[in-house]
Amino acid sequence: MAVSIRLRREGTTNSPYYKIVVADSRSPRDGKFIEIIGNYDPKKAEHNSNVDLTRVDYWVSRGAQPSETVASIIRRTRRAEKAAV
Q1: Which partner from 50, 64, 69, 82 sits 20 to 30 angstroms from 19, CA to CA?
Q2: Which pTM was predicted?
Q3: Domains in the chain, ordered, with CATH?
Q4: Mapping DSSP to helix (H, G, I), strand (E, B) and coil, where does residue 68 land?
Q5: Which of 49, 11, 44 is nearest to 30 (CA)?
């Protein structure tokens, strides 16, 4: 089973927000998933995502492939966490 880390769209028309989920790559975008590991709100200005980096590291070590967008969100979160420390 190929596992991916990707966005799941939620919200209403013209006001989307996304949950970052771990899912089987064969399942549909808003279909079944294994675990929710964060969220992303593109309508917010500044810090618009929340990601559990320990779970990301766990799933990546198990072979999960993040999508391009999720990979950039993870990089941004890691930079923000490093700057806060």
Answers
A1: 82
A2: 0.89
A3: 3-84 (3.30.1320.10)
A4: helix
A5: 11
